[in-house]
Amino acid sequence: MKFNEQQLSVYFIAGSQNVGGDVDRLIQIVEKACQNGITMFQYREKDHSTLSDNEKLKVAIKLKEITTQYNVPYIIDDDIDLMKKINADGIHVGQDDTKIERVIAECPNKIIGLSTHSLEEVRAANNVESIDYIGIGPIFATQSKLKVKPAIGIDELNRLYQESIHPAVAIGGIKEDNAKAVLTTNVDGVSVISDIIDSKDFKQTINHLKGNA
How many alpha carbons lie under 13 Å from residue 190 in its C-beta half-sphere? Predict the structure, then answer.
């Protein structure tokens, strides 16, 4: 699948650890999110995940079927082997994950994303042409991940986004009620975990995350 920055509009991230290990619930949520307008999905098994490699593969295959059905780009978090096994659309890595040079070498013709947290990291990413997009954050405090870096706020997001030569998605503590403020920076989209997982009205939540009242 070819990348364009509009795919970053509402970028949903989830794994079994975000739903208390309930894989069936995860699959149901991802399908509802795809039905109601998310523009990209990242499967991320980390932190408190208890899935074996085989269980993770089974979930990844099921999620691939769903995202393919709804034509939603499907990204795997920091697992080149899994991405290759299921032929996902792309891979995303953080600063402490698999080195970006290895990802680029092993994942030709895939969407490649890299997390950044500072001006130094954004400038380093600018020197890597093969990246398709960067994540910038955390914008606000978040409980969705372990080992979270300090929140940078909207002003710093704006500064880092202006510095980046790549499209960028904002991440970290973004919810329906603050998405509009984040989007005032003209960042290409917002990345969300808990606000979609906990949603009582997927269509409304995703619309608000797109900046629609």
Answer: 29
